[in-house]
């Protein structure tokens, strides 16, 4: 599996053509990483760059095409720019020459719809200072102040850095504990990790690594087993773990091997709690019981990887859904963070992967259109637990502390 996205804070740079977005990025990171040209429209598709911002730390900066681009190709560029809104933790809106109009107001409305904190920066102050009237209009219409900036003078940069640190949400930096709030020091945690065609050679998949580290960080004791070792472990070891965590796809095999007295959940359900939308998943999972012939189910993978016959999202889940419901269900799969084609309301259920490759903000925004439209959503782990008759058992470990990480 390849790392399709970065989980660092994502900062989107927006504005009209030729407001100096690329120059601003170069000044911000003190490197020549974005192409700069006097010709408007140099930046076409959004360009992502993993960088280190002095005073902030690691981040992903996204340079976007101008929001005032024209023509058929320009409209496509603007559409690509607007898609970026679903992936950013905060936004910088650059203006220049005291120009603030419908394009900027529309973009700020979009910031509000996607709950994106933002800064407004008046660039190229060395050429033309912002007019007091423009500042007044911006303040009245947006409730936001304007930061003055010039790429030619380093003295402007400290204020921008301070403002960015203030506006980037804490949740963009924080990685809430996965299970640290439900385990105790020296607890034994059993991790059941199948080694199949989907397992990368010589490595473990990211959720497994993340849980192992989280257990260590909270002074727990990891016991890592393959699924064919679970029965012998419980019969002969004499250890009664505080929690057993399995890959969701082997719930059917291990549910009877793990004693009822041992709490059981999955890596995918753990990721669902950390990445948010947990309550929506809890409510949406039972939609599996109500699916009818001809209904459509959408499976969302948040990463891109080589597909094989063991692929859980493209082969196993569709097969299990049809077997569980006994119905002729149409299943579509969308990978990465690509927008869902067509009308989201045509789906009766959406099943999201654990989301280990994306930020919490990106995953929440990915599901926002479905939730707003009232389409039930769940995730891989909860759906598989439900189809194996252990939904209550698999979610019970998090019911007391549900919401602490959401």
Topology record:
Elements: E1 10-15, H1 21-29, E2 47-53, E3 57-63, H2 71-83, E4 90-96, H3 102-113, E5 118-123, H4 132-142, E6 147-148, H5 157-167, H6 170-173, E7 188-192, H7 206-217, E8 221-225, H8 230-236, E9 243-246, H9 251-254, E10 264-266, H10 267-275, H11 278-284, E11 296-300, H12 312-325, E12 330-334, E13 349-352, H13 360-372, E14 377-379, H14 380-387, H15 391-395
Parallel strand pairs: 1-3, 1-4, 4-5, 5-6, 7-8, 7-9, 9-10, 11-12, 11-13, 13-14
Antiparallel strand pairs: 2-3
Question: What does the model show?
Answer:
The protein is α/β, with parallel strands linked by helices and 406 residues long. The chain folds into three domains: 10-173, Rossmann fold (3-Layer(aba) Sandwich), CATH 3.40.50.300; 188-270, Rossmann fold; 278-387, 3-Layer(aba) Sandwich (Rossmann fold). Helices cover 34% and strands 17% of the residues. It has helices at 21-29, 71-83, 102-113, 132-142, 157-167, 170-173, 206-217, 230-236, 251-254, 267-275, 278-284, 312-325, 360-372, 380-387, 391-395, and strands at residues 10-15, 47-53, 57-63, 90-96, 118-123, 147-148, 188-192, 221-225, 243-246, 264-266, 296-300, 330-334, 349-352, 377-379. The strands form three sheets. The protein has a six-stranded mixed sheet, sandwiched between helices.
Helix and strand succession? Answer: EHEEHEHEHEHHEHEHEHEHHEHEEHEHH
Strand coverage percent: 15-25%
For the record, the count of structural domains works out to 3
Rg of Cα set: 24 Å
Unreliable residue runs: 1-5, 33-37, 305-309
Using the coordinates shown, work out and report the CATH topology of the largest domain.
Answer: Rossmann fold
Spatial order of the strands in the main sheet?
A: 2-3-1-4-5-6
Number of helices: 15
CATH class of the largest domain: Alpha Beta
Q: Give the overall silhouette.
A: elongated
Structural class: alpha/beta
């Amino acid at each position: 599996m390849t790392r399709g996205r970065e989980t660092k804070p994502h900062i989107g740079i927006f504005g009209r053509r030729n407001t100096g977005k690329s120059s601003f990025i170069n000044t911000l990171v003190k490197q020549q990483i974005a192409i700069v040209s006097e010709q408007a429209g140099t930046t076409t598709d959004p360009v992502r760059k993993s960088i280190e911002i002095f005073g902030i730390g690691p981040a992903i900066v996204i340079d976007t095409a101008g929001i005032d681009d024209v023509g058929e190709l320009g409209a496509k560029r603007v559409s690509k720019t607007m898609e970026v809104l679903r992936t950013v933790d905060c936004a910088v809106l650059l203006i220049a020459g005291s120009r603030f109009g419908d394009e900027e107001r529309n973009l700020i409305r979009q910031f509000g719809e996607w709950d994106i904190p933002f800064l407004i920066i008046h660039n190229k102050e060395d050429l033309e200072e912002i007019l007091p009237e423009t500042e007044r209009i911006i303040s009245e219409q947006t409730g936001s102040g304007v930061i003055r900036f010039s790429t030619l003078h380093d003295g402007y940069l400290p204020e921008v850095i301070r403002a960015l640190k203030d506006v980037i949400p804490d949740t963009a930096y924080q990685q809430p504990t996965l299970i640290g709030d439900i385990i105790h020091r020296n607890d034994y945690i059993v991790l059941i990790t199948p080694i199949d065609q989907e397992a990368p050679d010589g490595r473990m998949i990211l959720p497994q690594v993340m849980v192992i580290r989280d257990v260590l960080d909270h002074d727990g004791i990891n016991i890592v087993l393959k699924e064919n070792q679970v029965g012998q472990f419980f019969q002969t070891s004499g250890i009664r773990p505080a929690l057993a965590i399995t890959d969701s796809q082997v719930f059917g095999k291990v549910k009877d091997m793990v004693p009822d007295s041992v709490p059981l959940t999955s890596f995918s359900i753990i990721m669902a709690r950390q990445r948010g939308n947990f309550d929506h998943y809890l409510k949406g999972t039972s939609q599996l019981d109500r699916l009818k012939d001809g209904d459509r189910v959408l499976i969302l993978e948040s990463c891109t990887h080589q597909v094989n016959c063991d692929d859980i999202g493209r082969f196993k889940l569709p097969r299990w859904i049809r077997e569980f419901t006994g119905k002729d269900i149409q299943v579509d799969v969308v990978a990465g963070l690509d927008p869902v084609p067509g009308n989201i309301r045509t789906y009766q259920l959406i099943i999201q992967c654990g989301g280990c490759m994306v930020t919490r903000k990106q995953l929440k925004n990915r599901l926002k259109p479905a939730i707003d439209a009232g389409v039930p959503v769940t995730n891989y782990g909860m759906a598989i637990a439900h189809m194996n008759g252990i939904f209550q058992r698999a979610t019970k470990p998090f019911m007391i502390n549900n919401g602490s990480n959401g």
